[in-house]
Amino acid sequence: MVLIVFVMVLIALYWSTGKVHDAKCTIRESLTRLHTYYQEGDLIIGEISSFVSTTADQMYFNEPPKDMAYDTPFVRTRHYQYALALAFAVEEINKNLRLLPNVTLGFHIRDIYMNERESYRATMQLLSTKNRFIPNYKCDFRSNLIAVVGGAEAKTSLYIATVLSLYNIPQLAYASTSQMQEIFSGLFMYQMVANEAQQYKGILQLILHFRWVWIGLIVADDERGERCQRVMLPLFAQNGICLAFTAKIRQALMVTFEMMKNGLESYEKLMESRADVAVLFGDTGSISYCRWALRWFELEFSTVKPKGKVYILTIQMDFASFFYQRDWDNTAHHGTIGLTVHTQEPPGFKQFLQRKKPFETKGDGFIREFWEQAFLCQFSDARVQMGFDKVCTGQEKMESLPGDVFEMSMTGTSYSIYNAVYAIAHALRDLSSSPGGHRRFLKRKESNLFHRSSWQTKPLSICSESCNPGSRKERKEGEPFCCYNCKQCPGGKISNRKDADDCFQCSEGQYPNDDQNGCLPKSLNFLSYRETLGIVLVVLSLALSLSTSVVLGIFIKHQNTPIVKANNRDLTYCLLVSLLLCFLSSLLFIGQPDQVTCKLRQTAFGIIFAVAVSSVLAKTITVVLVFIATKPGSKIRSWVGKRLSNAIILSSTLVQASICMIWLYTDPPFPDVDFHSLAVEIILKCNEGSSNMFFYILGYMGFLSLVCFTVAFLARNLPDTFNEAKFITFSMLVFCSVWVSFVPTYLSTKGKYMVAVEIFSILASSTGLLGCIFLPKCYVILLRPELNDKKQLMRNRKGREI
Fold first, then answer.
1. Cα–Cα distance between 411 and 407 in angstroms, integer?
2. Which helix H or strand E contains 333, and what residues bound it?
3. How many CB atoms are closer than 10 A to CB 446?
4. CB 474 within 8 Å of CB 460
5. CB neighbours of 436 closer than 8 A, spacing ≥ 6?
6. DSSP string across 581-644
7. Residue 292 DSSP symbol
8. Of 580, 549, 583, 528, which is closest to residue 763 (Cα–Cα)?
9. All residues at 6 or more sequence positions from 772 whose CB lies less than 8 Å from its CB, including other chains
10. 105: region left, alpha or beta (phi > 0 left; psi from -120 to 50 alpha)
């Protein structure tokens, strides 16, 4: 019995060992997806592409890999040239015996199916044995990966670099323009095209050249779109370009109802806008997605008809489309302007394309589906039935295809891939020709040139570990200079490389990120009509202006009643008009500062308030003189009248106007930019020029208010039914309280909140005058008309005198 059990265990062990061996070394296709292009060589260059769209079952880590359900593939046929550009460059290099003698290059191209997360899988497949997905294991060394060309987008490049950096394998991104040095720091990632900053300058120059100052901005709803907005919006504002609208488009293969709703809103916003120019910032799939979405909205949902617009496209975007979009109306895209990558035509490339035939090309898993969807035909043994009526012969001519289906001349992106392959070849040649490098080159050619184990045999003879970006070296006392501590950069400073000797400030208009290893652009800070605070202040100002107009209308309608006539109608009208202008003057403080508003803000405010306060002062003095003039034998009677009140208002206002004129002539206010007061924002403000003159205006206004308050306080108990002194006393108490508290509050705030404080002070003090002086009179006029009678008022007056 024991013997039988022992034999069974041996059989089980043998069986399980065989299964492990089979899992590791038996070459068989583990996936039914055949979208790969492979050519044997001593050294392999990988490429991560993204021009096939399909879906498959979700895979889980708690179960063995399974054959994935093959779904209908849709090919962006125009982008197939990217794979052919790499194959053409490898063919040229292999024919050039001077560049890499005795070495044959091969290539391995994998597709990520327009899914950035698939980048991890495709990269691991490049690192695994051919046709096997066993991460970090190779049955042979024929798949000797030395570099990877790939990464149309920053996120894709990051995912690829995350895996390749473990094996010290370099990546050359052929289309990624992202300016994210802090993310790619320490990774073997090199860009073959200019970064986004150059694109932004080009777009700005284009817009300024055509004098387009009213435009729209449409960005992808992700971090790329956010980054574009952070950079472009300040550039537009600084150059006088206004945004009619901004919209975000979320891209995905599976569209939800919420995405459909948001997309429809963006479409209607675009079509209803009076802006005829829109900047589109997206990726390689944006145009095909936008064409699909526009057609959907036009046919099914939107009542808004499409209108001709000028679209400005970024480098990543082109007019690649799927086969089912070929007969769609393209008139909406006529007039589109796109930035392109520099390119030129390598000799023999067009002939190379003309030689490509589906039955004569080995190892190319893309060409059959490309051929079917480019020529709208079907092979008799096609893996998936697409419903095309025509049968593919394999002899169709590529040069007969339209440009949005396939280009026979090399595109800018293909030229970047072509240059990337040559960059790898020249690096290999330099490695083989360096001292001692030839021997290492041949040895690694036989094994794995950049395999991680060959690098890890070196852990390092160092005194101190490297200091990461965001910190600096601090020398240890009494020890050699190579021994140091790493110290975090102080607040407001960064270091963007390893082992930095010192930290430095970000340039003006930028601020350090949280890790202090890079700089981010600051946003603009000014009190805008579009933000909540600005909207509230505008509504409040207009509401108070309307209230003042209503009061003025009431007094004009009842101008012949005793209560209106008794208190000098002209002074009342003058005060109400000046209060109306006070409320409206607060609107000058809202919006982006410019030359006109900066000069008008404080001067208009100072002169209008001088008229208002001097009108109150004239009313107060008139009350006092009327009481004195009623006494027998008084000689003051000749002073009571319009001439005195006019003289008070004119002289008081003339002094304030003179101060303002001197200010505008000597050192006027002007629009200014403050980079330093706020950490993460640029303040757009009005520089007061001579700040002393501003406080002279406030000081003179305070002097008039104090005189008016004093006279009204002394006359508050005069026995007169028409006496306004009590109301004026209380109104001036409110007025002075507001402006006394304004000064310290104004000096302690910054940016848009400083402007908001002044607007609030203007509205509050003007409301105090309006409410305290005119509310009691409106109450009598509207609700107690029996008291607005001369006999009744005279009876009350006599009763008071007795």
1. 7
2. none
3. 10
4. no
5. none
6. HHHHHGGGGSSS--HHHHHHHHHHHHHHHHHHHHHHHHHHHHHHHHHHHTSTT-SGGGG-SHHH
7. H
8. 583
9. 727, 728, 730, 731, 734
10. beta
DSSP category for residue 364: B
Distances (CA, A) of 220 to 69, 113, 279, 745: 30, 19, 11, 42
Residue type at position 77: T
> What spatial distance separates the first Cα and last Cα of the chain, rounded to whole Å?
136
Q: What is the DSSP string of 57-119?
A: ----TTS---PPPP---EE-GGGHHHHHHHHHHHHHHHH-TTTSTT--EEEEEEE-TT-TTHH
Burial class (CB in 10 A: 0-12, 13-18, 19+), 212: middle
Query: How many whole angstroms separate alpha carbon 569 and alpha carbon 565?
Result: 6
- b/e burial code for range 627-645 (CB count within 10 A of at least 16 → b): beeeeeeeeeeeebeeeeb
Rounded CA separation 470/612 (Å): 58
Tokens standing for residue 184? 């790619």
Q: How are beta strands 681-687 and 670-674 bridged, if at all? A: antiparallel
DSSP state, 508?
Answer: T
pLDDT for 419? 93
Cβ neighbours of residue 674 closer than 8 Å, sequence gap 6 or more? 682, 683, 685, 751
Q: How far is CA 393 from the centre of its chain?
A: 50
Put the strands of the sheet holding 214-220 in their side by side order: 242-249, 214-220, 277-281, 310-313, 337-338
Helix (H) or strand (E) holding 21: helix 2-25
Residues 546 and 310: their CA atoms lie apart, in Å, by: 42
Query: What is residue 185's predicted lDDT score, i.e. its pLDDT?
Result: 56
Of 315, 410, 424, 415, the C-alpha closest to 93 is 424
CB atoms within 10 A of CB 139: 16
- The DSSP string of 452-475 is HHHHHT-----SSPPPPTTEEEEE
The SS3 assignment for 228 reads: helix
Exposure class string for 769-792: b at 16+ Cβ within 10 A, else e? bbbbbbeebbebbeeeeeebeeee
Task: In whole angstroms, give the CA distance from residue 761 to residue 602.
Answer: 13
pLDDT tens digit string along 441-500? 544 444 444 333 333 333 655 677 888 999 998 888 877 777 888 999 998 899 988 888
Residues 143/130, Cβ–Cβ less than 8 Å: yes
CA distances in angstroms from 39 to 42, 86, 407, listed in the order given:
10, 11, 24
Coil/strand/helix, residue 366: coil
CA 29 to chain centre: 45
**Regions in the chain scoring below 70 on pLDDT:** 1-34, 55-61, 63-72, 130-133, 135-143, 176-187, 250-268, 283-308, 319-334, 434-462, 567, 626-641, 718-723, 790-802
pLDDT at 292: 47
Beta strands 189-191; 214-220: pairing state: unpaired
DSSP secondary structure code for residue 478 in this structure: T
696's CB contacts (< 8 A; 6+ apart) are: 659, 663
The Cβ of residue 257 has, within 10 Å, a number of other Cβ atoms equal to 7
DSSP-derived 3-state class of residue 792 = helix
CA distance 233 to 210: 18
What pLDDT is recorded for position 577? 94
Residue 498: helix, strand or coil by DSSP?
coil
Asked if 315 and 175 count as a contact pair (C-beta separation under 8 A), the reply is yes
Query: Rounded distance, CA 134 to CA 718, Å?
Result: 102
Instruction: For residue 620, give the nearest of 728, 464, 481 by alpha carbon.
Output: 728
**Measured between alpha carbons, how far is 663 from 658 in angstroms, rounded to an integer?**
9
Give the three-state DSSP class for 350.
helix
